[in-house]
Every structure is written in structure tokens, then in C-alpha cells.
From TrEMBL:
Pfam families: FLQE3_permease. Keywords: Membrane, Transmembrane, Transmembrane helix. It comes from Paenibacillus residui. The keyword Ribosomal protein does not apply. This is ABC transporter permease. The chain crosses the membrane at residues 20-39, 46-69, 89-108, 120-141, 161-182. InterPro entries: FLQE3_permease.
């Protein structure tokens, strides 16, 4: 746990240094300004699209850039001779990017609606969705080095408690499966090829 937390702190420092937070601050401000121009009758629908298509998928795009950068700098050649485990590395990356996504989504929602509809359930949905897409992005990035865009759409009708529980359960199961797939991809395409044994 301590190694993962240290890696998580390092990832946040790296993201700040590389301008991720500044870039997403500007993007978030842009979204907030655009939402303020949307007629109030359509604002809820547009807000859902913005929150669940961009901030929640942020990890998918950023993890691809991070992995490609780290591969290009040969960071992996030395990283896994340290006590840091692949699972800890992945958890730190996923948590740091999911946190950035959640902060951005929260800012967009609060700017458009204030505290109305803002809840732990809303934050959990963003966090879990971002974690899922980050893991999918990581698995693709280590396999082929290129990323395709994915966008999420959310239903526009009130959800029953069973739909909420079902949605959360699907995300949790999806995260588990994506984690296992991404970890296997990372081991096969990075860890086992360290030292010039493959591209």
C-alpha cells in the first residue's frame, strides 16, 4: 500500500509538472462557460453529455500519452526491478487520473447546477467510469501504442434504485475485468520485453 501511495504521489507530481492540471483547468473553464450559454431547458442534457463523455473519459486519453511517453523514455527498463509491483503501478495511475476526472466533472456540474443533484453517488459514478476507461486505455496503449476515442453517453431519464445499483455493479465488474486484462497486457507487452527482448 505504501509503495502504491508513493507512486500515486509521484504520478500527481508528474501530471502537474507536465501541465495536465493546467490543461484540464482551462478545458473545464471552457466547458463551464459553454454550459452557461446553453438554454436552461437543454442544460441538463448537455451537462450529462459533457460530464460523462469528456471528464470521465479523460483517463483513457491521458494514460495513452503517459504510457507512450514512459515507453519512449525507457522508464520500464528500470521501473520493475524496484519493489514496485505491476498492480501497484496500475492502481496509482488509475487513481491519479480518476481523481483529476472527478475534480473536473464536479466543477462542471457545480458551475451549471450548483449543489442540485450533486452527491456521493454522482462522484462515485465519475470515479468508477474514469477508472474503467483508464484501464482500457492502458491495456490498448501497451499493446499497440495508439489510442482511439471513446465517448460515454448517459441515460436522460430518472433512474430507479435498481438501475443505479445495476449501473454501479456493472462498473465495478467492468473495472475488475479491465484491470485483469490491462495487467496481463502490461506484463506481456512491457515487463516481459524489458531488456531488448522485443518492441
Amino acid at each position: 500500500m505504501r509503495r502504491m501511495l508513493n507512486a500515486w504521489g509521484h504520478d500527481i507530481h508528474f501530471q502537474v509538472r507536465q501541465g495536465f492540471y493546467l490543461a484540464y483547468l482551462l478545458i473545464t473553464v471552457m466547458y463551464c462557460l459553454l454550459l452557461s450559454l446553453v438554454p436552461s431547458g437543454a442544460r441538463a442534457d448537455v451537462s450529462v453529455l459533457v460530464v460523462f463523455s469528456d471528464p470521465s473519459a479523460l483517463g483513457f486519453f491521458f494514460i495513452g500519452g503517459i504510457v507512450l511517453l514512459e515507453k519512449g523514455q525507457n522508464i520500464y527498463d528500470n521501473l520493475f526491478v524496484t519493489p514496485l509491483q505491476v498492480g501497484e503501478y496500475m492502481a496509482a495511475k488509475t487513481l491519479s487520473l480518476a481523481m483529476l476526472s472527478t475534480l473536473s466533472a464536479a466543477a462542471v456540474h457545480l458551475s451549471a447546477f450548483g449543489w442540485e443533484g450533486f452527491s456521493l453517488l454522482f462522484l462515485a459514478g465519475i470515479l468508477l467510469t474514469s477508472a474503467f476507461f483508464t484501464l482500457i486505455g492502458l491495456g490498448l496503449a501497451v499493446r499497440c501504442g495508439t489510442l482511439n476515442g471513446f465517448f460515454l453517453a448517459s441515460p436522460f431519464h430518472p433512474l430507479t434504485i435498481w438501475e443505479v445499483l445495476y449501473g454501479l455493479a456493472v462498473l465495478v465488474v467492468g473495472i475488475g475485468l479491465a484491470y485483469l486484462w490491462a495487467k496481463r497486457s502490461f506484463i506481456n507487452h512491457i515487463v516481459l520485453k524489458i531488456g531488448g527482448r522485443g518492441q
